[in-house]
Description:
The structure holds two protein chains of two kinds.
Chain A: E1 6-10, H1 14-26, E2 30-34, H2 37-47, E3 51-55, H3 63-72, E4 80-85, H4 90-99, E5 103-106, H5 111-123
Parallel strand pairs in A: 1-2, 1-3, 3-4, 4-5
Helix pairs in contact in A: 2-3
Chain B: H1 6-9, H2 21-37, H3 42-66, H4 73-98, H5 108-130, H6 136-164, H7 169-193, H8 201-222, H9 234-249, H10 269-291, H11 298-386, H12 390-420, E1 429-431, H13 433-450, E2 454-459, E3 466-468, H14 470-486, E4 493-501, E5 504-511, H15 518-521, H16 532-536, H17 545-555, E6 559-565, E7 569-577
Parallel strand pairs in B: 2-4
Antiparallel strand pairs in B: 1-3, 4-5, 5-7, 6-7
Amino acid sequence: MTDSPLILCADDDEDILALVALRLERAGFRVVRATNGESALSLARERRPSVAVLDVMMPRLTGIEVIRELRADPATQGLRTILLSARVQESDIGHGLDAGADAYLAKPFRAPELVALVQKLLAEPS
Amino acid sequence: MVSTSLTQRIPGQFQRLPQSRATVGYLVGGWAAIAVYFTLAPHAQSVLFVGIGLSAVTAIVIGAARKPRIARLPWHLFSAGILCQVVADAISGYYEIHLNREPPLPSAADAFYLSGYPLLVLGIVVLVRRLGGQAGRAALLDTIIVAVAVATVQWIFFVEAYIREALPLGARIADIAYPSMDVLLLVAFSQLLVGPSGRAAAYRLLVISVALWLIGDEVYGLSSSTYVAGGWLDTFWLGSYVVWGAAALEPSPLPFEFRDRRTIPRLTPARLTLLAAALLTMPSVLLIERTEHHHIHALIAAAGGAGIGVLVLFRLVDLVRAVEGARASERIALQDAEQSQRQLEEQNDRLREVDRLKDEFVSSISHELRTPLTSISGYVELLMEDEKDTEKSEYLDIVDRNATRLLGLVSDMLFAARMQSGQFDLRTEPVDLRLIVGQIVDSIRPEAEAADVDLRVHEAGVIPEINGERDRLAQLFDNLLSNAIKFTPRGGQVDISLGGTNGKAVIEVTDTGIGISDEERSHLFERFFRTQVVLDRQIPGTGLGLYISKAIVEAHGGQIAVRSVEGKGTTFVVELPSVVATHD
């Protein structure tokens, strides 16, 4: 397991956070969890995950703000990010992608869809 | 009534030429009589002169009786005025025929002649005022300017000569009274000239008759010593009688309810000409007197000129004030417009803010509903994967289906709210409809099989490529096919056919379902509309599906239509414009 990619999951809704983590763990990934934007950013800098799956509406820092911070830091700017949100208007999706997210996945999501997306990002050259 | 334009109310009535047969007949007969007049002996001429005058009075009385009651007064005044003239003519004729001499000066004839003028002038003034031609201070000033000019000319050329003559007082008064009456008639005539717009035949005939009268009087005034009764000069007075009678017989096309109520007279060419003539009167008089080596009436000319100058000054002051008033009104209007513009901008800002808040609200509601659904669907999905018990799996499947249904409802409501706020933009690209329809059919086939509905796809000929948003088109076909399956009884059939015609892709979804009544069909694409059968059978749904479908089709520049027979089935026809128009 130690060789499998590390995925950062961040969501202030603990039920959804547990669900996302469980799905990714079942798919064979290692998972590190955060319940707000600030700790997500810290974990991203400390643990250097391969992919970050971030909720948008989180306390302290939103998922979009976390991505901006990551992109601004040369050490983390290459981190693959997925925004996972229940805000699904075109404008919300546009803001997320403009901020630098690699993908935007709407809640509720299907597990195979999430896993496939993570695998796709891992397969792409950084 | 007053504000209605004349041309709208009585089209075609502003004829320039007489239209009435009575008018034309009277004109022809009258001028024939005038022609005969010059062939007669002097005594017979006197009789015919009176006869023509009486015929004019009769024509005016008849004409007045045929006019609306409110329009009769001026014509009654005209008939009385001309009757006075005719009586005077008769007295003069009596002197000539029976006493073989001119009537003395003054005589009863003069009394009738002179009393006729005020009646005619009053008639003209009443007529012009009732037609709205003269009203307000500016019109009054114009009238006075003309009156001063005319009076000065009359005084210099006609009155003063009589004052200097060594005649008895009565004769001098009578001699002065005639040009004075002509001053009144000339002023009244000027009002007719610049009078109400919309001149009709009757009005024009009246102008001609007064003009003939004045020409006769003025020529007589200039050559009274050489005047011979029965001579050519009589043509003017006789002609005036005939034309006046004809004017009365012509139906009036300007009923008083249509009168022009402008308070400021327009500076028409006629009015400007008249005012210019009045202003040039004094220089012209002095020039004529100088050229003819007459006695120069410097004092009278100066007084007249000064009077006209002062009146023109008043007129100018009024005009300047009117312009200043108009500018002030313009400034106020401009300020009002600027204030309205500011208010409009503030209102727009508020509307934009409200729109933003509404958008934010809809987005928040969607977020709050989707978040718990994420947990429900996600954990049910997990349980379904792990559950080996068939019965429990079925229960979980029910929960999953309903969670999905609830998600569809939330999505539809969000979509409808966005359409309402005009935020529905497409991200189009060339798309192959066969692929989209194929994917939707594949995904919906399990639903059709579960409902025991035979789902078939047909492709006919070339299917044009269209510019569209893939997800929205998928949503459209999903809506139409889901509806068709939902409303088709077990054992029924749903067909989706793709084709193209006249540069359009045509997609038809046909079911053998319950159908839609004619009455309900027209409401089918309205928001939240549900048919009575659907309500009675408690078939689940929000009434948003077809509303959204229509919006998607129209956003793609297409059309959607429906055909249905109750109890037999329904067909939805979607036409979408192709990228390049093709014909097959």
